[in-house]
Design a protein that fits this description.
Helix content is 37%, strand content 21%. With 146 residues, the protein is an alpha/beta fold.
């Protein structure tokens, strides 16, 4: 039996842009064109999760509601939603990426982190994950895992 592959996505500036209210509260997430389609196709090939830095007041429930409103919550495995405000660590810490792989019950080498930030991709690589800078590039990285 083949090992499971897992693809974790950053949210802001990778899948879309966050919208904030006048007091800095996160109120919406606007998807980039083709993000939903790319996620749906990727879900046919791998389990999907999120690793994202979030405002301190963000909860799992509030972030899930935001993703539901954007129409993408059902594309992600609920156990693989890792938000910095919930986990107590952010993407500058290798431990967050290791926690993500552990939750997925997958070896880090079977996990891909997709994010626009070079620094965050470097941390993911140091945790043993493969990386992609764009959701569409993740398909090429995934092919190399299979």
């Amino acid at each position: 039996m083949a090992e499971t592959n897992v693809v974790f996505f950053d949210l802001g500036d990778t899948l879309g842009t966050a919208r904030f209210n006048a007091t800095g509260g996160l109120v919406a997430f606007d998807l980039f064109p083709l993000a939903t389609e790319a996620l749906a196709k990727m879900k046919l090939q791998a389990r999907l999760g999120v690793i994202s830095n979030t405002p301190a007041e963000a909860t799992l429930a509030s972030m899930s509601a935001l993703l539901a409103a954007a129409g993408i919550l059902t594309l992600f495995d609920p156990a693989l939603l890792l938000f910095s405000s919930v986990e107590g660590m952010d993407k500058t810490q290798k431990a967050l990426f290791k926690r993500a792989a552990s939750r997925a019950a997958a070896a880090p080498k079977r996990c891909i982190f997709v994010g626009e930030s070079d620094a965050e991709r470097s941390v993911a690589t140091s945790a043993g994950m493969k990386v992609a800078f764009h959701p569409l590039q993740a398909f090429d990285v995934l092919k190399k895992l299979t």
